[in-house]
Amino acid sequence: MFRNAGQACGATTRLLVQEGIHKRFLDAVIDLTRKIEVGDPSKPTTDMGPLISQNQERVVQDYILYGVDQGFRLVTGGHKLSGDGWDNGYYVEPTIFDGVDNASRLGQEEIFGPVVAVTTFRDEAEAIELANAVDFGLVAGVWSADYPRAMRVARRIRAGTVWIWDNYAQPVEGIWGGYKQSGMGRELGYHGLNDFLEIKQIFTDGTGLAMKPPYGQVIKG
Which pTM value belongs to this model? Predict the structure, then answer.
């Protein structure tokens, strides 16, 4: 979720979690998140580096303040890091909000920072509805012990790439591109080659209708 400190077009910004496993799942995610080593990206022990600029740090902090103001539950993170080497960059803790309204800014917008919004769903139909209730559609991921169900859900999610049991895997032969406001066209793979080709159509009317009035004139020999 916090790959590249969330500064990626395909970063996970929402987690839709089934109500029955919500607490157990969230506790496990919080535990893993708090173990993330934030620091100098040149060090092999670092898991997450800084934000790219002071301006982006302000943007991320504004989202965090918004989440707090909206009454969403801040379960971990949320602070700017300073001291202990963090003053040489724009570091923000990996942050998770729970109980997020999917219609809010945290549920709808691309943050490009280490902030994740958790929303629960009751059943498969609601999960699909929530997943598609955004203006963007670049990537999504589905986790389920029931593979046929995971595949069924993946087919109904309007996103250019849907991973099952994975996140951010992208083989070079795979395509990359999104639905809705996530862009047009595709990169990589067979479809990505089309942007480098000149495509021509040659059409021949085999019916002869195009040469008959009122469309044309029959030429007599």
Answer: 0.85
174 band by pLDDT with thresholds 50, 70 and 90: confident
Q: Which of 189, 183, 147, 184 is nearest to 171 (CA)?
A: 189
Residue with the two structure tokens 């800084």: 50
Phi, psi of 132 (to 5 degrees): -90, -5
Query: Do 159 and 133 meet the contact criterion of CB atoms below 8 Å apart?
Result: no
Instruction: Please tell me the distance from the alpha carbon of residue 14 to that of residue 17, in angstroms, as a whole number.
Output: 10
| Burial class, 96, CB count within 10 angstroms (exposed 0-12 / middle 13-18 / buried 19+) | buried
pLDDT for residue 206 is more than 80: no
For residue 203, the model assigns a pLDDT of: 81
| Alpha-carbon dihedral 25, 27, 31, 32, rounded to 10 degrees | 10
Domains and CATH numbers, the chain: 3-189 (3.40.309.10)
Model confidence pLDDT, tens digit, residues 177-189:
888 989 888 888 8
209, pLDDT greater than 70:
no
**Which residue's entry shows tokens 């862009």?**
183
